[in-house]
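## retry 2 of 3
previous attempt timed out at serialization; input unchanged, resubmitting
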Amino acid sequence: MDIPLSRRTLLSFAASVPASAALAACGSSGPGNGGGDGATATYWHLSGQPQEGVRTGAVERFNEASNKGRIDVTTFENDAYKTKIKTAIGAGQAPTIIWGWGGGGLRSFVEAGQVDDLTPWFDENPEVKDRLFPSSFGAATVDGRIYAMPFESVEPIVLFYNKRVFDDVGVQPPESWDDMMALVPEFNAEGIAPFALGGQSRWTNMMWLEFLFDRIGGPEVFQAVFDGEKNAWSHPAAIEALTLVQDLIKADGFVKGFSSITADSNADQALLYTDKAAMMLHGSWSYGIQQAEGGDFVSSGGLGFMNFPPVEGGKGDPGNSVGNPAQYLSISSKASAEQKKIAKDFFAKGVLTDKEVKEWIDTGAVPIRKGSEKLLAESESAEFLQFVYGIASNAKTFGQSWDQALSPTAAEVLLDNIARLFQLSVSPKQFTDNLNEVIGK
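## retry succeeded, writing output
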């Protein structure tokens, strides 16, 4: 999928970024100070296995091979990371290397002069750009200039389901929204939650709306919001999508107490692989978590997966997806010249090496480096990886995660109102009125 590099297209993905060394992290890993010329760059990224191990491993290998400086790593849990980055970047205390998702958050850093323009470096090092998926650069680009290095893996949102539970109850995976609603009382009657959900994290709730907006009205509905059109949230398809998700909540479609479950705890994942929930809408990275923590759930064939089904009468292509096309590394404009050089050396020599590509595949992820098809086919997780590769390569629209596509200000209002929507404390009309107030902010 060839994604234009303009702000006006949302067929890219999302951004947030690391936090400051002055803030307390949830964990720390990586090599110590010093080495080479004595220069040290800093790098903050997300914690949580198995992804954390791949990230820190890449840094350790780079440090071992480098005699021109080192990189120190600090890790954060997802939600804490997103909260602290605003303070860290705003205080001028960002790490040298800023981990993120691209998109609206990156744009805000660019407009504030907080990250470097990497376009000249990519022009001087075309081989670095040429080995990555072209579609990954959309969310790294602001007004035609590249401000981030795409890396890691492509991550569509996937509807996972427990084959054991489906077999026990004697039902089939849903082929439409109506099928999903019909399954709710079937599973509830057996004491099984129809859907696992870590609702306290809010962005997990958002994935439901992203798909429903697309399936009902097509990508044009959120595109209008992204483009800043007045009252864009009030589109009839948006009202219908908001109403449908509240219908699902009222029907007890989600596990009881979902609003107190956090995604960082992986409790939502555990509900699926322990047969307490039948289905879960989550990022493709969930496969690796269930593989690592779910015993033989994945290896025994208990895990099923599919794209989000269509809504009857909807305009959206059922092959469309939402999620992250990659993850992104930017360089703080406040870093020293020596630190910036270390960061660029890491981008050129330490990112998506053969070893790292293999490690991502082993976690159940599809790395964004070209030419990985053979390794995907040889993996024990070949079926899932080829499924993800198919979604990423065939989707006519791969929508950007909303909280990353929008500005940080609008995204916070969005997430707050999504939480309230799922708690049934605002109506679809109140939700749209509240969001219309921050369009373009």
